[in-house]
Write a structure and sequence with these properties.
Structural class of chain A: mainly beta
Largest interface: A-B, 22 and 21 residues
Number of strands of chain A: 11
Number of helices of chain A: 0
Shape of chain B: globular
Structural class of chain B: mainly beta
Order of helices and strands of chain A: EEEEEEEEEEE
Radius of gyration of chain A: 13 Å
Shape of chain A: globular
Order of helices and strands of chain B: EEEEEEEEEEE
Oligomer: heterodimer
Distance between the termini of chain B: 36 Å
Helix content of chain A: under 10%
Number of strands of chain B: 11
Number of helices of chain B: 0
Radius of gyration of chain B: 13 Å
């Protein structure tokens, strides 16, 4: 069965960096685009960005462009989110999600990892 | 970016009620609209794609309609397990956006 397991969250001071990971199993990882979506505590969903199946194409939300970077290592079935210059408004649960068929439908989601930006 | 506005933001309904949630896009998006359900403490669950196609395994009481800028999610007969927050998402642009969510609560 499809599984997505995020890790790397925690408490980090403003201005610092953090890298999140998402390990995939149960499907052919290198055939699927992958997304990051975040959700601030008690708030709605915010799309962060997407990386194509081969890592060659990436798109980002304007709110994170230049500070958050998505990458993937298909040899390790792992998706990454590199986060720099973190701000309080980046405090959220970060979910990785599989793109169903390249159409931007997110059909499987991980359980998420919480990032808290606080001094 | 394409903005999505859901209404209402929340509603109270009883088991067996017919419930309708709307999602309006800031520009025409064809049928490039998705609906998700999120229960408290859980991850979002894909319900409807391409505005009206039911995702495999989703009960038939859920249906979607609309095109262009106006879309609707209907729950034909609300069940106890349907109390949740529902989000629309557009897939028209390479920069995806979600609606702000509609919370369906028990009356």
């Amino acid at each position: 069965q499809v599984q997505l397991v995020e890790s790397g969250g925690g408490v980090v001071r403003p201005g610092r960096s953090l890298r999140l990971s998402c390990v995939a199993s149960g499907f052919t990882f290198n055939s699927y685009a992958m997304h990051w979506v975040r959700q601030a505590p008690g708030k709605g969903l915010e799309w962060v960005g997407v990386v194509s199946y081969d890592g060659g194409t990436k798109y980002y939300a304007d709110s994170v462009k230049g500070r958050l970077t998505i990458s993937r290592d298909n040899s390790k079935n792992t998706l990454y989110l590199h986060m720099t210059s973190l701000r309080g408004e980046d405090t959220s649960i970060y979910y990785c999600a599989r793109d169903k068929d390249g159409s931007y439908y997110l059909d499987y989601w991980g359980q998420g990892t919480l990032v808290t930006v606080s001094s | 970016d394409i903005q999505l506005t859901q209404s209402p933001s929340s509603l109270s309904a009883s088991v067996g009620d017919r419930v309708t949630i709307t999602c309006r896009a800031s520009q025409t998006i064809g049928t490039s609209l998705i609906w998700y359900q999120q229960k408290p403490g859980e991850t979002p669950h894909l319900l409807i794609y391409s505005a009206s196609s039911l995702q495999s395994g989703v009960p038939s009481r859920f249906s979607g309609s609309g095109s262009g800028t106006d879309f609707t999610l209907t729950i034909g007969s609300l069940q106890p397990e349907d109390f949740a927050t529902y989000y629309c998402q557009q897939t028209y642009s390479t920069v995806l956006t979600f609606g702000q969510g509609t919370k369906v609560e028990i009356k």
